[in-house]
Write a structure and sequence with these properties.
There is one protein chain. By secondary structure, the chain is mainly alpha-helical. The protein has helices spanning about 5-15, 25-40, 45-65, 70-85, 85-100, 105-110, 125-170, 180, 185-205, 210-220, 230-240, 270-300, and strands spanning about 245, 250, 255, 260. A hairpin with a 2-residue loop joins strand 2 and strand 3 (about 255). The protein starts with a helix and ends with a helix.
Length: about 300
């Protein structure tokens, strides 16, 4: 089966079924990572690197072996479907939107707290809306485009490596006392694996929205964000939507001075739908490019 068809079927399965409500493999992997940390933790880069290798390498090798079996296509579709979080991202964002439209700020804060790591208890309507849009834009790369990129480049083993490292980064990639050294390997590997996908995502946001604003914001603002990959993605997304995002936010009780991103006014509730629509347009662009690239390579091989 062609790469394009595998990607398309995986996306359709995600749109139809969403994430498994029970026994999601990434949830199981997270529990395994917690168990590994409990017995393997030491405040050194070596222990953190060994923990990442112990958790990720066997699953990559298993998936690579499956790629040589007759039924590898089924596994390819299943792995990519489980790695993509398009449906889940939209569902969570919509829950925040519905709570805001109902003027239920308490529920909106609770729902956005499932999307972001910042403190949400004191956020007002605008801040909740902004946090939701920032999460949608950033997770467009982490939960959708990054997985697709690595599948196109390296098949199911690439998706496994990308998604598991991304999960470990979410668990261990903090610059605090406990994880500063132990989480170093997970954080660096996640940066490396996301470097190209993040910039392709930023370019996709630009090409499917306000391109000029997006490219300017990417060039002038994306490089000053604390994350080298989230910065270009969020800056381009903010510029593409002509919104003002970023700015100070509170994390674990401490106010963090974040740069401003984008242009235009503060986001309104309706802009949550606009952010989700931007991801949908960018996804259609990716599918067209994958299809065209596969057709071109097929014609090239036939000559």
């Amino acid at each position: 089966m062609s790469t394009f068809l595998v990607v398309l079927i995986a996306l359709l399965l995600d749109a139809w079924l969403g994430e498994p409500r029970r026994f999601h493999p990434l949830v199981g992997f997270g529990k395994l990572a917690e168990l590994t940390e409990r017995y393997f933790y030491a405040d050194t880069r070596m222990h953190g690197s060994m923990a990442v290798l112990l958790l990720v390498a066997p699953l990559i090798l298993l998936t690579a072996w499956i790629d040589f079996t007759p039924w590898h296509v089924v596994i390819d579709v299943l792995v990519l479907y489980l790695a993509i979080g398009w449906n889940s991202l939209g569902t969570h964002a919509k829950r925040v939107e519905h709570a805001l439209l109902a003027d239920n700020l308490v529920a909106a804060r609770q729902q956005v707290g499932l999307l972001v790591s910042r403190d949400t208890a004191e956020l007002n309507h605008v801040a909740v809306t902004q946090a939701t849009i920032e999460s949608v834009l950033e997770n467009g790369n982490d939960a959708i485009f990054g997985a697709i990129f690595w599948f196109v480049l390296a098949g199911a083993p690439g998706v496994i490596a990308y998604r598991l490292i991304n999960t470990l980064d979410a668990m261990w990639g903090y610059r605090n006392e406990r994880y500063h050294h132990f989480g170093w390997a997970a954080a660096r590997l996640d940066d490396y694996l996301n470097f190209i996908p993040a910039r392709l995502t930023a370019l996709s946001y630009a090409l499917t929205g306000q391109a000029r604003h997006a490219l300017i914001c990417w060039r002038t603002q994306g490089t000053i964000w604390k994350s080298p990959n989230a910065g270009p993605v969020m800056a381009a997304g903010a510029g593409s939507l002509s919104l003002s995002l970023g700015g100070p936010a509170c994390y674990h009780g401490k106010l963090e001075a974040r740069p401003l991103l984008g242009t235009g006014q503060k986001p309104e509730i309706r802009d949550i739908d606009r952010a989700l629509a931007l991801i949908k347009r960018a996804l259609i662009l990716w599918l067209l490019i994958i299809c065209a690239g596969e057709w071109f390579l097929g014609r090239l091989a036939a000559t």
